[in-house]
Amino acid sequence: MFSLLSAQAAEATAVAVEDGSVVLEDYFSPSLWQLFLEGGWPYMTVITLLLLAVLFCAWKKPELVKLAGVAALAFGTFSVVLGFYQAADAIVYAKGIESYIIWGGVKVALLPGLYGMIVYMVSLVARAFRKCCKCGK
To answer: What is the pLDDT of residues 17-67, one digit of tens each?
Structure first.
């Protein structure tokens, strides 16, 4: 889960802190693609496919929208737990690890879970919209 991009971001942050300068645009506004890669592309790809399933189900099979949303939430939670396990394993074997590296890893481990929650919220909105449209008929 500790990807090359997160290591580069941690190094850039550390250099900015050591130099006394602050690089806000690089640290606080990463692109969606960068977040996708930092979260671990296999996990983020599965959650993206579940987002597409939510949208497709909302259109064709509304009774499956909740199932696809819950699957995205469960898979996001699974990837967070797996990321924390991998981070803990890396910390155990590392000697003298800096706190900014640990927190960079925590940030990376939380990304798929956050994405899974967003997909779940989209599924809730899609279900509410379908129920609202059904009542209005």
So the answer is: 555 555 544 556 778 888 888 888 999 999 999 999 999 999 898 889 999
Count of alpha carbons within 13 angstroms of residue 3, beta-carbon side: 17
Q: What is the pLDDT of residues 84-112, one digit of tens each?
A: 998 888 888 888 888 888 888 898 899 99
Exposed, middle or buried: residue 5 (CB in 10 Å: 0-12, 13-18, 19+)?
middle
CA distance 51 to 119: 6
11, 14, 19, 25 alpha-carbon torsion, rounded to 10°: 80
Q: CA dihedral in degrees (75, 105, 107, 53; nearest 10)? A: -20
